[in-house]
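Sequence in, structure out. Go.
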Amino acid sequence: MRKLKITEMGRMSVEEFHAADKMPLVVVLDDVRSMYNVGSVFRTSDAFRVSAIYLCGITAQPPHPEIHKTALGAEDTVSWQHFDNTMDAIQSLKADGFTIFSIEQCEGSTMLQSIQLDRTKKYAIVMGNEVKGVKQEVVNASHNCLEIPQYGTKHSLNVSTTAGMVIWEFAKQLLIR
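Output:
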């Protein structure tokens, strides 16, 4: 096998990306500290044509060299908004008809592999702070919580790793035909 060159991959231009249909998914970052995590979420969101990223609270905003280091330009393709307070983002999404999932270990949470999405609906996933997770008030305002099963000794995954896994599951159900 031969590795493909970038020019052989047939990727969209920035203009084509902006004009393309997007997956009906918004990623909400709730006080994510690491700009590298923020950049990684931008890059994954670009790969799966996520509609937008909502950067909330202390979550850094582009342009910034540390975000760019992992986003590699995806901060210029994926739409984003900043909210001082995550609850303002949640209220806006609910008013626009989104179903909100906090990605958190909660009583009664749904395991990621068990979720059944409806292609006619719009969704938002909330990714929490690297230490404290998703704020309890945001969990309370969510329609449900999604959890990734884990079988080792650690109680959590890196936020950008988690985002990649969850976005992929949503893409399998909402984007890939």
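Check: The chain has six helices and seven strands. The mean pLDDT is 97.
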